[in-house]
Amino acid sequence: MSSEHTTREGSSRDDRPPDTTYERAPALRGQSTAIILVAVVAAVIVGAVAATLLFGLPGGEDNTEADGSVAVVSIEGLIAGSIDEELEGELRDIRADDSIDAVVLEMDTPGGSPATTERMYKSIQRTSEEKPVIASVQEMSASAGYYMMLPSEEIYVLPTSIVGSVGVNAMAPPTSPPVEGPSGPDKAGVHPTHGWAELETLGDIFIETVMEQRGDRIELSREEVATAQVFTGVDSVENGYADEIGSLDRAVADAADRAGLETYTIDNRSIGAQDDIPLFAQTDYGMVAIHDENPTIADVEVLEYAMVYEPAVPHIEELEAVTSSGVEELAAEIAEQDAAEEERGEQP
Fold this sequence. Notes:
This protein is of the alpha/beta class. The chain folds into three domains: about 5-60, no CATH class; about 70-270, 2-enoyl-CoA Hydratase, Chain A, domain 1; about 280-345, no CATH class. It has helices at about 30-55, 85-95, 115-130, 145-150, 190-215, 220-225, 235-240, 250-260, 320-325, 325-345; strands at about 5-10, 55-60, 70-75, 100-110, 110, 135-140, 155, 160-165, 170, 230, 245, 265-270, 280-285, 285-290, 300, 305-310. Strand 3 (about 70-75), helix 2 (about 85-95) and strand 4 (about 100-110) form a beta-alpha-beta unit. Helix 2 (about 85-95) packs parallel to helix 3 (about 115-130). The longest helix is centred in the N-terminal third of the chain and has 27 residues, at about 30-55. It is globular.
């Protein structure tokens, strides 16, 4: 894992050189204006260079005067595979590192697996109990992405960021009518209502967590939250799904301020680039996870549940790399097998 360190500190307007006054002769008004503009531009450039030297001093040169450090953890892509284990490991190390005083989650994900998301949520929640945690949404942090960052003290978004999509996706229902059969835990087989109840439970947990973590900020009712709408950054700040419009740098500065740091280094960490993260795709039989570039039936998983912003997941026909492999047909075959097994299990 590579880390990038930067030292930052505040600057004072008193450090600036005294203003320069220019007199303009009436006959040379245009020329004088041009000179003034050139001088202003030059001053801005000099100031920018000075600011770079002051705020962007490389950590390898001299970080001894920094008050502490802010860890920026980038969470990018689908929430699947072993990404939960990687985040747990990073945050465990951060909690144990006394030199790191605050955490910023740089979020850019459409969501993913409910079980994986729950583990990441718990890890972020535990970290927030020990150190300030701020979330900074880049392009999007929807569905599972939104869920996992709820323990953050503040959520920063860009004006065009996408957040929300509070809900759970489910595989397409069977085309055949439900069959009478076992419905209790002491009976053989699994009744269709069991799956519906599980889906409803997962959705309720998501909604209740949102209301518990941000109910005092969100201006929408529980029923409105449950519609799984998404919002732009501007709208999300207005309705309470997010807190501030601001860049990653602003989120980092906020985290440092909450930790009481005037000068600080930045420790950049990134997760979500593992080879075991599958490709998600939509099919006529529901959403699938594809675990290989040239998949067989063993490499295609029909997802019973997912916490994903669906418009961010391409249809299988849009994925040229795997279309030729017949993933749609594999998904259909898997769905038929699952339906047959379920029907057998429902027989009294």
